[in-house]
Specification:
The chain is mostly beta strands and about 550 residues long. It contains 6 helices and 37 strands. It is about 5% helix and about 35% strand. A hairpin with an 8-residue loop joins strand 2 and strand 3.
C-alpha cells in the first residue's frame, strides 16, 4: 500500500479499454445523491500530515455505523489520525460520534458521549461485549487501543485498562468480535500490521521527496486474540489459540463460518503476503489454512496486497463467498465458495471490471443497492499523497466504483449511479446502512485527509425489501455469528451477523434484503450461535426484530 513495484502491462491496458464500455451499455436503477453538505457532518480526517512518509499515513482508517443509543436510527463513528512525529496541530485531532437525527441530518455528540479518543485510529468494530443490551466500541490504533463500554444513557466509559485489551503500542488494523468457543460471550480478534516505530522508519526518497515505504521493509507482527472471561475482562490467548503461530501485515478482516461447521473462522487480509484463513476447531483453537483451501493468493498464485474484505453470496448458491480488495496493478479477488471446504478465484468468471486495476482499492461492501434481490458491490479507491509525481498511470484522488450484480456477473455502472461519479476523493473505509429508514442502504465514505462523503440511496423503482435485527439474552445480545436465510418464492438469500468487516470498518448489524417484485410473505430462518433454529413468516417492506425463543 506504499511505494512498490508498479507494473502495468500492455495486456492489462488493452483489457481495461475493452471493459470500460460497460458504463453506458446497461440499464441501471442505482442512484446516489451526495447529501454531505446538508447533513451537519463537519468531521475532517487527518493522516498526520508529516510529509515524512511514515507508513501509517497511507493506511488512513476505517469507519463505523451502529445505533449507539437504541433509538432505531443508525449513527456514525469516525476514526481520525493524530499528529505524527515532526508535526503539530492547533488542536489535537480526535474521533467523532455523530447522532442520527432521523431526517438525514446528524449532530456531533462526541463530547457528551465521551468517545473522542485522540489516538491514531486505524480499525474499529462495535458489539455488545458485556451483554447489557447496548453496543460497545473497540478502536484499533497506532499505539494503545481503546475499549469504550456503552453505559446505556448515551455516554461511554473507557474501560481499556480494566478489560485488558490495550494491545501494547502496535500498528493496528482490522477488528472483529466473535465467539470463538461457543460459550455465549464475544471474544476479540485484533489484526496487527508491521513492527513500525519512529526509530525504525524507512524513508523512500524520490526526486528529493519522501514517500512511504512498503510493508516489505518492516517485520510483520502476529495478530492478537483476546478471550472474554464473561466478567468484563479479557485474556490474551494469541499463542495458545494458534493465532500467533504465523505473522503477516494484517489489514481488513472478517469473522464468519466459512466451512459450515457451526463455528466462527477468521479471514485476514495481508498487505503483500499470502492472506490468512484461520479455521476454528470449535474450541477456540485455530489452524491457518489459506493456501490449502485457495484463499491466500489469486488464481496465479500471486500474493496480493490485500486491503479490505466483505462477505456475500454473490451467485446465490447458498454458500458464503467473499471478496478482498487490492493494491495498484492488482485485481481485487472474488473467492467463490465451492461448498467442500475449498474456494476458487472467480474474479474473471464474475467479470469484475479491469477498470479497478490501475487503482488502490480499500473499502468494500456486498450490498443490494437497488433491492432487486442480488448483492451489488461498492469499492472505495484512492492512492497516497503525491503519487502522480512518480507515476502518471494512476491518481491519488479518483471516483469510487459500483458494480451491479446481474445473475452472478458484475457490470461496472459507476458512471450511471447519480452523483457517485462526480465525487473524486482519496477514499478508505466505507460503512453501509439505511440511515433514513426508507428500506434501501446508503453509504458513508471516509476520505483521507479531508471531509467524508454521505451518499443517500435514491435508486429508481419500487422493489420490496425486509430488514432484520436479532436479539437474545446473554453476553451476545445482538446474535453476532448467527446465520440468517430469507426465502422469497424460489429464491433464498443468506448472510451472517458480523461485527467488523470491510476496510477496517464496521457496518450492517441490521441485515437488509432486497426482494425484487416479490409481494410476500417471506420466510426467515435464523440459526443462532448456539445452533438453535428459528423460523417465521413476515410481510415485506418492514424492519423486524426477531427475539430468540
Amino acid at each position: 500500500m506504499n511505494v512498490r513495484s508498479l507494473n502495468l502491462t500492455w495486456t492489462w491496458l488493452v483489457l481495461m479499454a475493452w471493459a470500460s464500455f460497460a458504463h453506458a451499455q446497461v440499464d441501471c436503477n442505482i442512484r446516489f445523491t451526495d447529501v454531505t453538505q446538508h447533513s451537519g457532518i463537519r468531521f475532517v480526517h487527518t493522516h498526520g500530515g508529516s510529509e515524512m512518509g511514515y507508513i501509517v499515513e497511507g493506511m488512513s482508517t476505517g469507519i463505523a455505523s451502529f445505533d449507539y443509543n437504541g433509538d432505531g436510527w443508525i449513527d456514525i463513528y469516525f476514526l481520525n489520525g493524530a499528529p505524527l512525529q515532526g508535526t503539530s496541530f492547533d488542536a489535537p485531532a480526535r474521533n467523532a460520534l455523530y447522532r442520527n437525527n432521523g431526517d438525514f441530518t446528524f449532530t456531533d455528540v462526541t463530547e457528551p458521549a465521551g468517545v473522542g479518543d485522540t489516538g491514531y485510529g486505524l480499525g474499529v468494530a462495535a458489539a455488545d461485549y458485556d451483554g447489557d443490551g447496548d453496543i460497545d466500541l473497540y478502536i484499533n490504533n497506532f499505539g494503545a487501543n481503546v475499549l469504550y463500554r456503552n453505559n446505556g444513557d448515551e455516554t461511554f466509559t473507557d474501560v481499556t485498562a480494566e478489560a485488558g485489551v490495550e494491545n501494547g503500542s502496535k500498528v493496528g488494523a482490522g477488528v472483529g468480535f466473535l465467539d470463538i468457543e461457543g460459550d455465549g460471550d464475544l471474544d476479540l480478534y485484533v489484526a496487527n500490521y508491521v513492527d513500525f516505530t519512529y526509530e525504525n522508519h524507512v524513508p523512500i526518497l524520490i526526486n528529493g521527496k519522501r514517500y512511504q515505504a512498503g510493508p516489505q521493509y518492516y517485520k510483520p507482527v502476529p495478530d492478537s486474540l483476546f478471550r472474554n472471561e464473561g466478567n468484563g475482562k479479557f485474556v490474551d490467548i494469541s499463542v495458545e489459540s494458534g493465532i500467533a503461530s504465523v505473522a503477516g501485515p494484517g489489514m481488513g478482516l472478517i469473522c464468519a463460518d466459512f466451512d459450515n461447521d457451526h463455528d466462527t473462522d477468521v479471514y485476514v487480509c495481508n498487505d503483500g503476503e499470502p492472506n490468512f484463513l484461520f479455521m476454528n476447531d470449535g474450541h477456540g483453537v485455530f489452524e491457518e489454512v489459506g493456501l490449502l483451501v485457495g484463499v491466500a493468493c489469486d488464481f496465479s498464485g500471486k500474493a496480493n496486497s490485500s486491503m479490505g474484505v466483505d462477505l456475500g453470496d454473490f451467485d446465490q448458491d447458498g454458500l458464503l463467498d467473499f471478496m478482498a480488495t487490492s493494491y495498484q496493478a492488482e485485481m481485487p479477488v472474488l473467492y467463490r465458495n465451492l461448498g467442500d471446504g475449498l474456494f476458487e478465484d472467480a474474479t474473471s468468471s464474475a467479470r469484475i471490471t479491469q477498470d479497478l486495476y490501475p487503482h488502490v482499492n480499500w473499502g468494500i461492501g456486498f450490498v443490494d443497492f437497488d433491492n432487486d434481490s442480488d448483492q451489488d458491490l461498492f469499492i472505495a479507491c484512492g492512492h497516497f499523497d503525491r503519487i502522480e509525481q512518480i507515476d502518471d498511470r494512476t491518481a491519488q484522488k479518483i471516483p469510487n466504483y459500483v458494480l451491479m450484480n446481474q445473475g452472478g456477473r458484475f457490470v461496472n455502472v459507476s458512471g450511471n449511479c447519480g452523483e457517485l461519479g462526480k465525487i473524486v476523493e482519496t477514499s478508505r473505509g466505507v460503512a453501509f446502512d439505511d440511515f433514513d429508514n426508507d428500506g434501501d442502504v446508503d453509504a458513508i465514505v471516509l476520505n483521507s485527509n479531508t471531509t467524508p462523503t454521505l451518499l443517500r440511496n435514491d435508486s429508481l423503482g419500487s422493489n420490496k425489501w425486509i430488514q432484520i435485527e436479532l436479539q437474545q439474552e446473554g453476553l451476545n445480545s445482538l446474535g453476532i455469528g448467527s446465520r440468517v436465510w430469507v426465502k422469497s418464492g424460489n429464491k433464498t438469500q443468506v448472510t451472517e451477523v458480523l461485527a467488523g468487516r470491510g476496510y477496517q470498518s464496521h457496518y450492517g448489524s441490521r441485515l437488509s434484503f432486497g426482494l425484487g417484485n416479490f409481494d410476500g410473505p417471506v420466510e426467515v430462518e435464523v440459526r443462532w450461535p448456539d445452533g438453535t433454529q428459528q423460523v417465521g413468516q413476515f410481510e415485506t417492506n418492514q424492519r423486524i426484530l426477531i427475539k430468540k425463543q
